[in-house]
Amino acid sequence: MQRVFSGIQPTGVPQLGNYLGAIRNWVTLQNDHDCVFCLVDMHALTVWQDPAALREQTLGQTACLLAAGIDPTRHILYNQSAVSAHARLGWLFNCVVRLGWLNRMTQFKDKAGKDRENHSAGLYVYPSLMAADIHAFHATRVPVGDDQRQHLELANDIGQKFNHDYGVDFFPVIEPLIPPGAARIMSLRDGTKKMSKSDPSAQSRIDMTDTPDEIALKIRRAKTDPEPLPSEEAGLAGRPEARNLVAIYAAMSDETSAQVLARFGGEGFGPFKKALAEVLVAKLGPVADETRRLLRDPGHLQAILCDGASRAEAICEPIVTEAERLVGFLR
Ligand code: AQP
């Protein structure tokens, strides 16, 4: 069976983009892959995190992932910092990656903006730690949203450069698994900006733990334009907010955007938004309820992460030790 690795930053409550771009895909992949799912707290630290909040968010996300259908008995769920192999391989990869390659990463440019000098070096080398996360497990398939496509290409470049530099065929080629319809969910306030859990505006996103009333309110307030919905996809051109809401509806109801527009085209946004909120509540409501139930027993969540970390270590420790041997570290 092929090995899947994927991670999520415990920087807040998972949002709808995380769910449609990654988590939903993770749940399905469990049926026919060996899966390693990681709460990447070391990545989270690349921007300031309140320590107590980071701990709480790590447990919160664990609960959310379990509630969404991640099975920690058949697969592995743990937090990155508990397994030192990530940091060790990350360092080797920092010495393999070229500055020019990192300079091209659009996520760093987006997150750092014009104020580059004041961001952590960790944020800059984030992609080489991400490459290490995946290669430490010799994982070949990585389910991510479209925003991570460039980082995965870099992860392949790093793995292949390592192989070339040391004359080995050690790190395999990684295949990104990007969901076709919901690859990039956009902010509810600005259809040109990615939905993000750390966006300062809570109105910009649907959190996986939102109540039905919160979901309905956020969708009602979601930015739109004055035109009715078009009947065909071509009519969504130049209307990023409308396109995003239609894409969300389609993804949540397992339909295509064309099918959604065939039903709602010609109508104003009122009835469509009402139907969209209903679809979201039907799918996310049970996950939110189960998350709240699981959070009542943080000890149980911590035990799951602890068990996951030791099973993760058993896989990646020999791989990373071998990489260290290949570069000439004395053991
Ligand atoms: N808007 C999105 N649409 C589709 N997929 C998305 N993902 C994130 N946002 C969207 C996917 O979710 C997985 C986990 O993401 P992450 O937490 O590791 O980092 P991120 O992409 O930076 O997510 P956020 O929510 O924007 O976090 P913050 O605000 O902390 O930076 C990834 O597979 C990602 O593709």
TrEMBL record:
Q: What is this protein called?
A: Tryptophan--tRNA ligase
Q: Where on this chain does ATP bind?
A: Q9, P10, T11, G17, N18, G145, D146, D147, I185, K194, M195, S196, K197, S198
Q: What is its main location?
A: cytoplasm
Q: Which family does it belong to?
A: Belongs to the class-I aminoacyl-tRNA synthetase family.
Q: Could you tell me the gene encoding this protein?
A: trpS
The positions annotated for binding L-tryptophan are D133
Q: Lineage of this protein's species?
A: Bacteria, Pseudomonadati, Pseudomonadota, Alphaproteobacteria, Acetobacterales
**Reaction(s) the record says it catalyses:** tRNA(Trp) + L-tryptophan + ATP = L-tryptophyl-tRNA(Trp) + AMP + diphosphate + H(+)
Keyword list, A-Z: Aminoacyl-tRNA synthetase, ATP-binding, Cytoplasm, Ligase, Nucleotide-binding, Protein biosynthesis
Q: Which PANTHER family match?
A: TRYPTOPHAN--TRNA LIGASE, MITOCHONDRIAL (PTHR43766)
Q: In chain numbering, where does the motif 'KMSKS' region fall?
A: 194-198
